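Researcher: For the annotation table, I need structure tokens for DNA polymerase epsilon catalytic subunit. Please keep the output clean. Sequence:
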Amino acid sequence: MCWNMMEYLPEDAGCQAQFNVLVASYISKVYQHLQANSAIGATPRRRRNPSQALVSQQLGVGAHETSVEFVKEFINAELAQKMFRVAEKIHKKVPSMRVESRDAMLSRTQGKGDLLKPALELVKSVCKVLELDTSITDEVTRLKRNLLRLIGVGEFSSEAQWTDPCLSYVLSEVICESCNHCRDIDLCKDPHRVLDEDGTTLHWQCPVCEHFYSNQTIEYLLIDALNRKTMAYTLQDLQCCRCYQIKMDNMSPQCVCAGQYQTLISGKDLPAALATFGNIARIFQMPLLEEVVEWVQGRQEGGV
């Protein structure tokens, strides 16, 4: 299994290994049940009522009516007991720890020196995976509530809310120069990243032919994307926060509905994008992109 969120769980307390075990046990149990009931590979029947075709089909376990109750019972009994034992063991062994190091490109919520609770991070990550299936939302919510109570964290506290720990930027339609395979690459989360022969520069790799993508080409694409973002931020329109109409004139301080004007693009979006681009430039050794990012950041700090 390849879960990006697993890479940010601490290794010292065995959280990464336990994450794999818990998620794999759930997937394996569901698969075995579906296979035993011949739900996998079965040819779906055509609907007789044409009006029912307009109703969206439920995904996940909910698509198999006979399996929903089995999965709910599995979560409430076997999986819950496993997670209780694991969470209690990790919490007693390592109640909290300081983050010693963190990949600059990947860090969004944790930085060096921050306090981290391994058991809490494991609980949030596993429950987030289980929540992908909407048919078992109530069971997962109940399980998460009990686990948080076990480790002394409030259910509605800010630290109990899962946030993506990894930065993200998707570069669309990147074409491999060797096999012409085209795909969208999340430059921060893509697992196909390897060092070159010298072991000095990190490259993205084509999953089909294992050919390296050109870092220089990607650097130029990122510079173009950054220029577009800064241009869009500079030339953006103002919008009324009440009626959401675009400001038509230049002089009126407020909208005709007495609402205040606000920018279409949040003031936090551009600094966040600059931080992401800057981290990518440093990790993958893109000096020109790094220079552009530093120049834009300098202009922002100077109020220009």
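Researcher: And a one-line annotation?
Model: The first strand starts at residue 97 and ends at 98.
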